[in-house]
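Renewal narrative, Specific Aim 1. Our central claim is that a sequence can be written position by position from structural information alone. The example that follows is taken directly from our test logs and has not been curated for this report. It begins with the structure tokens describing the chain, in the order in which they were read.
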């Protein structure tokens, strides 16, 4: 690790933790909405429950890091609570494949987001980088699992995923700051 010098740019880890915690919280709410609608024993519900448990583990880790570092959560958390659940429930009501397409879209954006964070962090925060890299791998697994299970066969897949990805990008930008 090279020494920091005046004028060097440092990663805004507080903003990173805030947005990552908000994203993992939103993911748990999306999956909760989907699980409230999906038939209990359908294959998609079993996949969703497994992914939800991983998202909860990610959320727990970011909650601990925020507490340790004194980082406040986004003020938009109540909105993400409702919006996440509504998105999950709405896509599950559309079809099992639409629920999977939602996962595909979200995880595609999260892969990009986590990749940008890893680049910004460089060698400055090895523990945080390791967490983000590990979580990124699981998010990619979620995306690939959703695709393998039929996400791309959802009615209106290109439009549905484009809209969800745009919403995800907006939520990321808002949660960094608010």
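The sequence written for that structure reads:
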């Amino acid at each position: 690790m090279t020494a920091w010098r005046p004028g060097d740019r440092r990663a805004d880890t507080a903003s990173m933790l805030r947005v990552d915690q908000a994203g993992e919280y939103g993911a748990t709410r999306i999956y909760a909405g989907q699980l409230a609608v999906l038939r209990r024993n359908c294959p998609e519900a079993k996949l969703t429950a497994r992914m939800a448990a991983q998202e909860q583990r990610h959320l727990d880790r970011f909650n601990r890091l925020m507490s340790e570092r004194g980082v406040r959560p986004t003020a938009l958390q109540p909105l993400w609570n409702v919006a996440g659940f509504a998105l999950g429930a709405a896509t599950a009501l559309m079809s099992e494949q639409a629920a999977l397409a939602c996962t595909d879209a979200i995880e595609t954006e999260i892969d990009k987001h986590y990749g940008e964070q890893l680049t910004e962090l460089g060698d400055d925060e090895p523990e945080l980088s390791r967490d983000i890299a590990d979580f990124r791998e699981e998010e990619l697994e979620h995306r690939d699992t959703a695709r393998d299970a039929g996400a791309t066969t959802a009615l209106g897949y290109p439009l549905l995923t484009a809209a969800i990805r745009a919403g995800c990008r907006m939520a990321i930008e808002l949660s960094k700051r608010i």
